[in-house]
Amino acid sequence: MNSRDKQAENTKNAILRVAAKDFLSQGYQATSTRKIAQELNITQPNMYHYYKNKKVLYVKAIEHEVGGFSEKLYEEYNQNKDLPFDEMLTTISTFMVENFKLNFFMLRHDLDTVFTDEEKKEISKNWDGGYYKVLFNIFQAHKDELRTDLSIPVQVGTFLTMLVPYIEYSEARRKRNIANLNTMIKIFIHGIKKE
Description:
Blueprint: H1 3-26, H2 33-39, H3 44-50, H4 54-80, H5 85-99, H6 104-114, H7 117-141, H8 152-163, H9 171-190
Helix pairs in contact: 1-2, 1-4, 4-5, 4-7, 5-7, 5-9, 7-8
């Protein structure tokens, strides 16, 4: 790769990093592509040379962020996959809350109000290949310990529904949520009813 190609690649990646930070913290509507360009000291037309419009930039920025996070999550999973189920679930959940910075409800709102069903499917593929697959692997590896009347996808989906509110963009909220994570996981595994 020559120096011009390297510079172009560096610019593209810098745009994705800044765009992901803004989109994941503020949402689609509140994020300005002009502000992203200014933050990088490039012109808006230069940015649109790499990403033809705001929607394309949003999708690519989310893919970039989720892809990088998924790689790290798989590393964490592989280092800890021999832990007992409850410890593994706590370890992976803590890693997700500590390292995945996003306002999930804003993201959900963006997907529901800005994107077509086809675009939503494309964005969802990236998510499913990352964190969902790791959690599915954990539940699958421990299926002999789990209820048989609920399929693994139902169990994973239910757990994710409980975990998602703990994933925040704000550092202070993430710390608070990590402190409460063990309780949520115990309730998920053991329920709240007396035995």
